[in-house]
Design brief:
It contains five helices and five strands. The chain has a domain of 99 residues: Ribosomal Protein S5, domain 2, CATH 3.30.230. The chain is α+β, with helices and mostly antiparallel strands and 143 residues long. The radius of gyration is 20 Å and the shape is elongated.
């Protein structure tokens, strides 16, 4: 007899939280959405404290929730590792979008249209031999 994997939708059990993994550059974010009031905690600290007074990063993280109209319905808890602040904010945004998809698959067209489900493939280019940086060559001298 083959055992099938049971998802919360199949069993009718409502999960305690919805999980999403987000990636951007070298940052990886593990995001959990709990039913709540819109509180955002990243690595054990509130988002405003974690990102300082950079409102751009806060806006990035809340974008999937704003687009779906669920900004005050979920508390976001994220564990982020690697990368810098910009990459981490992008990773959390990607994770939140994926977690919302687990909550309600009908949100897919809205999130897809905004480009929030696509992992941003841009990463730092590797150093090449004989060059100063990834593409910058040493100055050419004819004589």
């Amino acid at each position: 007899m083959v055992e099938t994997a049971r998802t919360p939708q199949m069993t009718g059990i409502k999960p305690r939280y919805y999980y999403g993994l987000g990636r951007r550059k070298t940052a990886v974010a593990r995001v959990r959405l709990y039913p709540g009031t819109g509180q955002i905690i990243i690595n054990g600290r509130p988002a405003d404290q974690y990102f300082g007074n950079r409102l751009l990063y806060h806006a990035m993280i809340t974008e999937p929730l704003r687009l779906t109209g669920l900004q005050h319905h979920f508390d976001v808890r994220a564990r982020v590792a690697g990368g810098g602040l910009s990459g981490q904010a992008g990773a959390v945004r990607h994770g939140v979008a994926r977690a919302l998809l687990r909550f309600n698959p009908d949100l897919r067209p809205v999130l897809k249209r905004a480009g929030l489900l696509t992992r941003d493939p841009r990463v730092k280019e590797r150093m090449k031999p004989g060059l100063k940086r990834a593409r910058k060559a040493p100055q050419y001298t004819k004589r």
